């Protein structure tokens, strides 16, 4: 079996001299980082190899599983047409976004990622845009981290209702389940370095095997829908939204949200060996593979959906899809538990990624009390203070379940909206830099060349289009319970960031400077 280095050369096309040059440069960078960052609380060590870097992103997204347990939103708005064509649209659009960010990650593979690049490429007011981007990105990832336990708890509640019809659901039950789900990944992150390879290997195998087993079982046993139903049914009369275009756009949430989070490996960059090559490839590979798997799975579900009214009425519609296909409660429980397992494994990666991001932003004095949250524990070589803060934030956000009957939708739309905003600005600033000629772009080994402006433009158009629909309420008429709070909450975070800038951020925040690197252009 080929070694990790050999496999990397085959996969990336990188020559031995280039790979060795990057490795040597990273040794110099790490020595400089250790000297510079010791005052800020310490530094992280590189230990993630090529295969682990690929698996990290691949499992973190778990796109087909997330789409399976959230497609109820598209059943109300858009229906099968929104899911089928939206999966293609989301796959292409997200690939353009990931490719644009991959080019920047090759220039400067850093934990801070989006806020570092915004500060670097903004034509003016670099500190301001860096701080604003940092607040948005950190908030986006905290919300994204919350969505994993929210989805997992929703699956557990759905299975309880399925197996015990007399069970009376209380919203605080879901909150307690979320708290229980948060504990294990928090503790496991203390030994993340030791369990990473095992967790990633098991997760990747399950991610693929469960996918194949699911589509084969549904295709073999389920009653089939017509081609007309799958590709020509546009639902726009169930949620109160009568305009087909609006319904289709809002139905995109099911297929766009699962493909976000591909930047998770970016926030582990300081722990990835040969990050300038591995991080870009990891991001693009993850998005392409997950987009294809999500499309194939959702098409299978649509062709095997069975009684649509019965599926739509279920607390967790995917349960009825499996139950109608297999006719067995035991088999249904097994398939749905499989989904929860992958989502739970993904949570380990999300937790690790967001803690590093918070640590990096604190290291650059982006947050109040940055000195405390930028410390790295000498024993575990982890930003433990940042981990504890993330855990507390997740526990507080889980309380949303108690106060709102549509809290689950908030946990899905919030991270998607915030992450898409965080992707837009660095791409926009790089796009401007391509034509400004004010300073040369410090390209890395992964370079888009003449296609760069077109890919960036396509990525920005996709992001703007999707961002427009995410704050819309899913049901009309709107009241205080079904209102979509994602837009106002993101707006509140932006106002907080502005307040921080005015009060102390403009003096406290240090503009991140890209590390010295050889010219690969």
TrEMBL record:
Keywords from the named record: Membrane, Transmembrane, Transmembrane helix, Transport
Transmembrane segments: 134-162, 174-192, 204-222, 246-266, 287-308, 334-361, 382-402, 408-432, 453-472, 484-503
One term under GO cellular component: membrane
Membrane-related topology note: Multi-pass membrane protein
Any one GO MF annotation of this record: transmembrane transporter activity
Pfam family, one: AA_permease_2
Principal cellular location given in the protein's record: membrane
InterPro entries on file: AA/rel_permease1
Cellular compartments annotated: Membrane
Protein name in the entry: Amino acid/polyamine transporter I
């Amino acid at each position: 079996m080929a070694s990790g280095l050999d496999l990397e050369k085959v996969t990336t096309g990188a020559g031995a001299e280039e790979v060795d040059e990057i490795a040597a440069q990273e040794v110099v960078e790490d020595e400089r980082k250790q000297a510079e960052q010791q005052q800020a609380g310490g530094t992280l060590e590189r230990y993630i190899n090529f295969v682990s870097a690929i698996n990290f992103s691949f499992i973190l997204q778990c796109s087909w599983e997330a789409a399976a347990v959230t497609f109820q939103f598209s059943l109300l708005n858009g229906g099968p047409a929104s899911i089928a064509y939206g999966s293609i649209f989301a796959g292409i659009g997200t690939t353009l976004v990931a490719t644009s960010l991959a080019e920047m990650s090759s220039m400067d593979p850093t934990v801070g990622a989006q806020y570092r690049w915004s500060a670097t490429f903004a034509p003016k007011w670099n500190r301001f845009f860096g701080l604003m981007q940092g607040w948005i990105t950190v908030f986006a990832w905290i919300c994204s981290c919350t969505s994993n336990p929210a989805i997992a708890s929703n699956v557990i509640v759905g299975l309880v209702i399925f197996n015990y019809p007399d069970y009376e659901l209380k919203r605080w039950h879901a909150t307690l389940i979320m708290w229980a789900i948060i504990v294990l990944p928090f503790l496991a992150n203390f030994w993340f370095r030791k369990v990473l390879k095992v967790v990633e290997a098991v997760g990747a195998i399950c991610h693929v095997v469960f996918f194949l087993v699911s589509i084969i079982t549904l295709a073999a046993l389920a009653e089939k829908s017509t081609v007309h139903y799958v590709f020509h049914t546009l639902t726009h009369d169930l949620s109160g939204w009568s305009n087909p275009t609006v319904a289709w756009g809002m139905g995109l949430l099911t297929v766009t949200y699962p493909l976000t989070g591909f930047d998770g490996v970016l926030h582990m960059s300081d722990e990835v060996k040969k990050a300038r090559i591995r991080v870009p490839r990891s991001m693009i590979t993850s998005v392409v593979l997950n987009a294809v798997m999500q499309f194939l799975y959702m098409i299978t579900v649509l062709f095997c959906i069975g009684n649509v009214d019965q599926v739509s009425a279920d607390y967790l519609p995917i349960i009825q899809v499996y139950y109608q296909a297999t006719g067995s409660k035991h088999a249904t429980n097994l398939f749905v538990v499989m989904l929860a397992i992958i989502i739970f494994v993904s949570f380990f990666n999300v937790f690790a990624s967001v803690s590093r991001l918070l640590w990096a932003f604190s290291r650059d004095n982006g947050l109040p009390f940055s000195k405390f949250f930028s410390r790295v524990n000498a024993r575990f070589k982890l930003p433990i203070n940042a981990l504890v803060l993330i855990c507390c934030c997740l526990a507080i956000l889980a309380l949303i379940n108690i106060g709102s009957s549509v809290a689950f939708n908030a946990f899905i739309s919030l991270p998607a909206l915030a992450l898409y905003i965080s992707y837009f600005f660095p791409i926009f600033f790089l796009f401007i830099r391509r034509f400004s000629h004010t300073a040369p772009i410090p390209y890395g080994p992964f370079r888009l060349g003449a296609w760069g402006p077109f890919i960036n433009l396509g990525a920005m158009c996709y992001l703007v289009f999707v961002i427009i629909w995410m704050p819309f309420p899913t049901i009309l008429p709107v009241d205080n319970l079904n209102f979509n709070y994602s837009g106002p909450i993101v707006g509140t975070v932006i106002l907080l960031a502005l307040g921080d800038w005015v009060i102390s951020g403009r003096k406290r925040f240090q503009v991140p400077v890209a590390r010295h690197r050889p010219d690969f252009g």
